[in-house]
Design goal:
- The chain has helices at about 5-30, 30-45, 170, 235-240, 330-335, 395-400, and strands at about 45, 70, 75-80, 90-95, 105-110, 115, 130-135, 140, 155, 160-165, 180, 185-190, 200-205, 210, 225, 230, 250, 255-260, 270-275, 280, 295, 300-305, 315, 320-325, 340-345, 350, 365.
- The chain has about 400 residues and is an alpha/beta fold.
- It is elongated, with a radius of gyration of 30 Å.
Length: about 400
């Protein structure tokens, strides 16, 4: 081999050495503990058929370039597992305990898939964690009480899983929580106090929670509260009167008794769902109600319907014990199209001022059947309202007495 050939061979060897060093440096730039943790996490999770999320996870290259891995310097700061695009098949497997080794992790999420098994207790080692969202999977077991050690946690979303047991009181004591979403699980026991002064959303619907709520259980900072489809009981008038920042409230399908506070109707709520409880007494808002949808159906409310409800777009007062005539202002708003839904069936109402020839706007729906009157206008009612048009006379006479 001539001098020129030997020179080319030396240059090629140097090039290979430099390439190897660059490749080694790309892998080694990540903290070794984080590197090993990612390897363990990868071994415990798999793409479902049709998913290609892990195709970029080649550990001979820089893990900070992997799909869903976000780094700051040599540490993993964010781990968002699974393809977030709608319709993606997602991942399957279990969450490996090595997740706790990513000590700088601030953001951890897993998009819908078929993950199963319990949440590893090691998650409580992630002292920097601010966002934890593992929703719409098959996570089972209890909500670890040790999550209460995550003092920086702002969002906790474990919804649509198979979690059981009680909600740990330690979670309610976390000072920085803004969003707690534990809906659609199998959680039982009582609702613990949520004391964070910055909490804005609490969603515990579709569980098996029981017990009552003390007046100081929830922060006045709440803007969205959903406790529907549980077995909660006890009066809530004092609690609700404090939550004057609410924009959404759903307490439906529980066993809450007692009065509905008048103050509630002046809050900046757009959707009020209190149906299917044991609320009783009269309902008398102090001013015109600006809430778009009000559902007070299937309770034990009584007295005259307040004309202050005439400004509600969708009003459900059916299946209660309301008496007397329907306020003229409500009828006027219905005929002008201002009320789109007015359900008053199954009460003890005695009449309404409306001409038999009056035409209900096509965009509006009125149901009056099963009251102490013959409906003055024939309107289609929901199928679930039944076929009877009026209450038996004896029932109406009993109400008058």
């Amino acid at each position: 081999m001539g001098k020129q050939g030997r020179r080319k061979m030396v240059c090629y060897a140097l090039f290979l050495a430099a390439l190897f060093q660059c490749k080694f440096w790309a892998v080694a730039i990540l903290d070794p503990l984080d590197f090993l943790a990612l390897q363990s996490i990868r071994k415990s999770l798999h793409d479902l058929p049709g998913s290609t999320f892990f195709s970029s996870w080649d550990f001979t290259s820089d893990p900070c370039n992997f799909a869903g891995v976000h780094c700051d310097s040599d540490r993993v700061m964010g781990l968002n597992l699974g393809d977030p695009r709608a319709g993606s098949p997602g991942l399957t497997g279990k969450i490996d305990a090595s997740i706790g080794k990513l000590s700088a992790l601030a953001d951890f999420s897993i998009v819908p898939g078929r993950l199963y098994g319990p949440l590893p207790p090691s998650i409580s080692q992630l002292k920097e964690l601010r966002f934890l969202a593992i929703s719409r999977n098959f996570i089972s077991g209890n909500v670890p009480a040790t999550l209460g050690q995550l003092r920086s946690l702002k969002t906790l979303d474990l919804s649509y899983n198979q979690l059981a047991g009680e909600i740990p009181r330690s979670i309610g004591a976390l000072p920085e929580l803004t969003n707690v979403i534990l809906c659609h699980n199998h959680l039982s026991g009582s609702v613990p106090p949520f004391l964070s002064r910055v909490l804005t959303r609490l969603d515990l619907k579709h569980n098996s929670l029981t017990g009552s709520l003390a007046p100081d259980f929830l922060s006045p900072s709440l803007q969205s509260l959903s406790l529907s489809w549980n077995q909660l009981t006890g009066p809530v008038d004092r609690l609700l009167s404090r939550l004057d920042q609410l924009s959404f409230l759903d307490l439906s399908s529980n066993k809450f008794p007692g009065p509905i506070p008048s103050r509630l109707f002046s809050f900046p709520i757009t959707n009020l769902q209190l149906e299917r409880n044991l609320f009783s007494g009269s309902v008398q808002p102090a001013d015109q109600v600006t809430i778009s949808t009000v559902d007070l159906s299937h309770n034990r409310l009584s007295g005259q319907i307040s004309p202050m409800f005439s400004t509600v777009h969708n009003l459900y007062l059916n299946n209660n014990r309301f008496t007397n005539r329907i306020p003229a202002s409500i009828v006027d708003r219905l005929l002008s199209g201002g009320i789109q839904i007015l359900y008053l069936q199954h009460n003890y109402l005695t009449g309404m001022e409306i001409k038999p020839t009056a035409e209900i706007p096509v965009s509006s729906s009125l149901c009056l059947q099963y009251n102490c009157m013959v409906p003055p206008v024939q309107t289609p009612c929901p199928f679930k309202a039944g076929n009877e048009k009026t209450r038996p006379t004896v029932q109406c006479n009993e109400r008058k007495g």
